[in-house]
Amino acid sequence: MSANFVNFFILKKQICLLLFMLSQVSSGHEDDMHTIQYTKETFLDEIKKKNSFVMFYAPWCGHCQRLGPTWTQLAEIYNEGDSNIKIAKVDCTIDNVLCSEHDVTGYPTLKFFKAGEFKGTKFRGTRDLPSLTFFINDQLGSISTVLIFTLYILYNIFCYNNDTPSPPEPVNGLSELTEESFYSHVGKGYHFIKFYAPWCGHCQKLAPVWEDLANSLRNDDSVSISKVDCTLFRSVCEQFEIKGYPTLLWIEDGKKVDKYTGQRTHEDLKTYVSAMLKKSAEQSTNKGESSDGTMHIVLSLTADSFEHTVEKGISFVKFFAPWCGHCKRLAPIWEELGRKFFANENVHIAKVDCTLNSSRQLCYEQEVDGFPTLYLYRNGHKISEYNGLRSLDDLYGFVMNHLQSHDEL
């Protein structure tokens, strides 16, 4: 190993350590403390006394369980006797009235409460330790917002491994997808996916046939054969509106294109795959699409082009960072949303890369505090932030509601 490489590696570690220390300037604690449990009896008294960052959760929630270790780390950093902030949590299965009062409609919901204030500020960023830490310091005003934003970007780009989980390694051509790997796996290309439940008799009967199909196509790079256990990964199955088992969907670039309803023999399934690949190839040729099968019709904006683009009509803008896993999962859906409004001169679907020098100040001015942030503008004015489900239908409906309400005025 060369001396230059060793020096670079040491320098990188030093810079990462410095950045993370700066991100925690308001704490400096090392004590191992547990998260504090707030209840309906203690909540008001606690948020009056000190700043509180609260996780509203349900014990059965998978996202809450995955966040648990990170939330504990956050508590170890901040929960000390003389700290000006407490890291806490509320069990919404016990204190459901309290959660309703704070508009908790999904789990986990994270809110920061400044001491003495009953209304909290919702955290909308990526749920990792550096993102949560920078958010806290931003709320506390420990360091300037511009510096926080810059450190946040530098830390994630240079130090923090925040990549989307790699697509799973197929076994004999069959990929078993999870909630973490699904979106990165299906985001590009052609996919034939079985959504199933282990207890389902029809699924059990199909299982060896599905394995044979995957094995027979394992050397065909144009399509992947996968499966998703809906008893384990309900959110994925709900997004694709799975109503029964097994459901076999053909997905292209993250979008559901067709539902297979034919016979479930190996020959019939393989014939279907060939037909869908041929049909997709013909459609791509007729539409004049690019070689990767996508039409790049989402506007990429910078500080120079932003105002001019949003000054007329409806503009739906995604503020993102290339390293952000949630942004990567949203990308193909955002492209598809652009397709839907391609012919509508009154609607612009756009995106802003907040890591670019030409856009960083713009993102700060537009109050972007996490990725992705989705804002809707009308005639140059920001009128709404989108916080709903990020499916194509939900995003499309959101834009149409604003477009129709404007037309009715």
User: Kindly, what is the distance between the CA atoms of the first and last residues, rounded to a whole number of angstroms?
Assistant: 69 Å
Estimate nothing, just give the exact number of structural domains. 3
- Named at the architecture level, the CATH assignment of the largest domain is 3-Layer(aba) Sandwich
Let me know the number of strands.
15
How would you sum up the major sheet?
5 strands, mixed
Protein name: Thioredoxin domain-containing protein
GO molecular function, one term: protein disulfide isomerase activity
Keywords: Signal
Family: Belongs to the protein disulfide isomerase family.
List key phrases describing it.
409 residues; alpha/beta; Glutaredoxin; 3 domains; five-stranded mixed beta sheet; 14 helices; 19% strand; disordered N terminus; Thioredoxin_CS; protein disulfide isomerase activity; Thioredoxin domain-containing protein; Thioredoxin-like_sf; Thioredoxin_domain
